[in-house]
C-alpha cells in the first residue's frame, strides 16, 4: 500500500513546484492543462485559473500540434521521458525574452522534457511538461560562433 501524504507535506511539495525556476505543466491525455506553476504564469502572463482545463494548443496556437502530440503519445505509451532541445527546436511556446536590458534575443530558447506520470494502476495517465530557459546558453553559443570558435546555433 503506498504511503499517504499528509496535508502539511503536500503543502510544501506544492510550494517547491511553484518556486522552481523551470516551467511545470501537467497535461492529461487530451492535452488539457491541470497544473501550471508560477514560472509559466510569469512568462506567459496567464494565471492558473485562466488555463486550467484548457487544451494546451488553444492557449499556445504556435505549438506544432502533430509534432507535440507524437512526443506526448510516445512518452505515455512507452512510459519513458521525451525531450526537445533548443538546438533542434528553439522553443515550444513563444515567450518573450524577459531580460530587456541585457537580453539580445527576441524570445526565450527552451529545452522541453515530457515526464510520464503513472496513476495508481501503474499506467501513465498524465505528462509533466518541464520548460527550461536556455536563452543565456543560446546567446553565449551564438557569440562564440560569431567569434569563429564554435559551429553556429540554429
From TrEMBL:
Extent of the signal sequence: none
PROSITE patterns: PAS (PS50112)
Coiled coil regions in record: none
A Pfam family the protein falls into: PAS_4
Entry keyword Protein biosynthesis: no
Keywords carried by this UniProt record: Kinase, Transferase
GO MF entries: kinase activity
Biological source species: Metapseudomonas furukawaii (Pseudomonas furukawaii)
Residue span, PAS domain: 9-79
InterPro entries according to UniProt: PAS, PAS-like_dom_sf, PAS_4
Protein name: Diguanylate cyclase (GGDEF domain) with PAS/PAC sensor
